[in-house]
């Protein structure tokens, strides 16, 4: 084991590998911060460069881009209320409110620290526990993954503070939008009304950009007096000190652990991990009453969890040959092109490649920590633009990001419609986060549920007889019942 780690370490310290790490991380941060690009497009753009780099440099480049893009999404989520990637959607819940209060520098500092902590935590766990985590992943079939996503969907109750009914309505809207298009199992058209453009369904990016970014522009335009109070004051980044970290280590460790475990499960992804971590922190944090109003725990939880996924997602990809999401699918393509065959024999036949990947990701997180300060300065300059120019820049980025995902003009109409919907929901006090939760998790929930029913010949009983699924369903039941109890208790005390 020591010999393998030593050999992998020297492979990663090669000058070419380190150069690709720096370049890939910088590009990933920029790509993640720009709404619409995201991890998949960023990694795909870099794919042609891997054909001539060799095995380890190729892996290092793609992992650095992946790592940087997941973190980069938090920058725009905090500063302009627009998650650059779906993985950062949960970060807006407390990141932007903290920024509006005049603490954008601290909010980005918390996001940076939590991201690096989660990524490093995941790498350290994987270096010593990758085989055990691969075995754990084999215990999760469609039924267990369905139960896990049900637990993630309970985050709707957690973020619907003050009006659970409005939050559930928003969640239903998100779930309905998620099922529009072709059936994932049969290919039948659903709710398309013979409109061909709807046959592919709605992409997440135009909807998220419209809901958050465009609706923010509409709100500021409709209330110019209140808009002045929402201008973000930001000059740089302030990392949390030891005093601020006191009492938050449990959130960091728990969320990083959740991200490391959830990332191992194929088909879940960083967005699912972020929402589960947020919901768990909302349930257990001693500062849970402040979450949603700019509480640091609401930034720490999703950012440490989604960055922990970047490492653990490699376990099913490398050890089992199963891509957990689109990003790892692209990575598997690059590995195959470079003569590496993912699967159960990889860790036995080429363990130095596997551990080199983990170490490359470890270094990418450290490089990201350094580059984060440079990117923060750039965004500070952008935010000094006059309000009108800044809003025009948001609109331009929204248009470019929404169109660039699929090169489809229809996505621009989707973005506009989502912007109008987000504006109306804000007027009536309906939270936006449940819409995104339903949209992101809905397709995964449907596929896992229907796969489970196919395996059980349409019977729901096996869903409750699986011990692991039963535990997850029980946790989901508690997560749903507790906000109802708390809301009823608060109303009783008010009387």
TrEMBL record:
At the top level, the lineage of the source is Bacteria
Domain DUF112 residues, every copy: 20-437
Regions that span the bilayer:
16-47, 59-80, 107-129, 136-159, 165-181, 193-214, 258-279, 353-376, 388-405, 412-440, 460-485
* Key words, A-Z: Membrane, Transmembrane, Transmembrane helix
Read off the InterPro entries from this record.
DUF112_TM
Concerning PANTHER family, the annotation shows: TRICARBOXYLIC TRANSPORT PROTEIN
The protein, known as: DUF112 domain-containing protein
Recall the taxonomic lineage recorded for the source organism: Bacteria, Pseudomonadati, Pseudomonadota, Alphaproteobacteria, Hyphomicrobiales
